[in-house]
Design a protein that fits this description.
A hairpin with a 5-residue loop joins strand 9 (114-121) and strand 10. The protein contains 7 helices and 18 strands. The protein folds into 2 domains: 6-66 and 166-338, QueA-like; 70-150, QueA-like (Thrombin, subunit H), CATH 2.40.10.240. By secondary structure, the chain is an alpha+beta fold.
Length: 339
């Protein structure tokens, strides 16, 4: 298998295995555990997962909070428009995706007096806008307040339904704190309050913040992964978590976002900034020991990150096993624990 060929990371997934809604009982989600040293697979449920984690392990979570990043409005010419926030930029500029034809200078109007002016267009589909409220330019915190009133939870593109009130809590981790993500760190969604309390009581638990951008769903369209430009996402790491990373204590990353944040710090030494680290079988983790993650899209950088832990052949074999056993895939689906 060619580790640089995008086609290597493809697999067939029956559409009925895509999870469009979460389970009512989070702890009943299934978990495929792969133990690398023994080369063995265990099938269990999330309520029993802590029994399999080595006792000397430290757990790191991502405490980012998803904002209601999708809004609907109209252009000044009257046409309908849909805007998806991607990330704040400098000088109160924002990168966004817009459905509907626009050009620099276009004005978009939304509920609650919110307006946006398009100031730049990028070839990758991103647009740069400024937001205004009652003629005053607003910053990220002010925008997030307005989005809370008029916005919609930005469900992933493969969940083919409208968002509901339930998604406001379902698509948010119980430890979400810092606003800024436009996609959930989905491995975190398996924890309810009870499980998270048990986790904290049994293991050292630290936090990072990485605001997941819409680029997490961006497919790898080039044939050679060398040619893929990884998206950037803002991150911040506490001093306590930096100390943990610098130690030799085993770390379990809850999700790919935590993995990329820790690995970026291990390589660059920066505790805040913008992470664009691309992990794959030829760029393996150097600090994270274990990974809890969901099952990811074919040909995605997230699947390539999983392969950085266990190799391509094993990754595809594990996914074949998950399909055979009818695991639920993607954001609201089941999980995999790599030990």
């Amino acid at each position: 298998m060619d580790p640089f060929s995008v086609a290597t990371y493809d697999y067939d997934l029956p559409s009925e295995l895509i999870a469009f809604n979460p389970l009512a009982d989070k702890k009943s989600a299934r978990v495929l555990i792969y133990e690398r040293q023994k080369d063995t697979i265990i099938h269990t449920t999330f309520r029993d997962i802590l029994d399999y984690i080595p006792q000397d392990t430290a757990i790191v979570i991502n405490d980012t909070k998803v904002v209601k990043a999708r809004i609907y409005g109209e252009k000044s010419t009257g046409g309908k428009v849909e805007l998806l926030l991607n990330a704040p930029l400098q000088e109160n500029h924002f990168s966004v995706y817009i459905k509907g034809r626009v050009k620099p200078g276009s004005w978009l109007r939304f509920d609650h007096g919110l307006k946006a002016c398009v100031i730049a267009m990028h070839d990758d589909g991103l647009r740069v806008v400024e937001f205004f409220l009652e003629e005053e330019k607003i910053n990220a915190a002010q925008l997030f307040d307005v989005l809370e009133l008029i916005g919609h939870i930005p469900l992933p593109p493969y969940i083919k339904r409208e968002d509901t009130q339930d998604d406001c809590s379902d698509y948010q981790s119980v430890f979400a704190k810092h606003r800024g993500a436009v996609a959930a760190p989905t491995a975190s969604l398996h924890f309810d309050d009870e499980m998270f309390e048990i986790l904290q009581n049994r293991f050292e638990t630290q936090k990072v913040t990485l605001h997941v951008g819409a680029g997490t769903f961006k497919p790898v369209t080039c044939e050679d992964i060398h040619d893929h430009k990884m998206h950037e996402e803002y991150f911040d790491i506490s001093n306590q978590t930096c100390e943990l990373i610098r130690s030799d204590k085993p770390i379990l990353a809850i999700g790919t976002t935590v993995t990329r944040t820790i690995e970026y710090y291990a390589r660059v030494g920066e505790k805040s900034g913008y992470c664009d680290l691309f992990l794959h079988p030829q760029n393996k983790p150097i600090r994270v020991n274990h990974l809890l993650t969901n099952f990811h899209l074919p040909k995605s950088t997230l699947l390539m990150l999983v392969a950085s832990f266990v190799g391509i052949e094993k990754t595809m074999a594990l996914y074949e096993e998950a399909v055979k056993e009818k695991y639920r895939f993607f954001s609201y689906g089941d999980a995999m624990l790599i030990l």
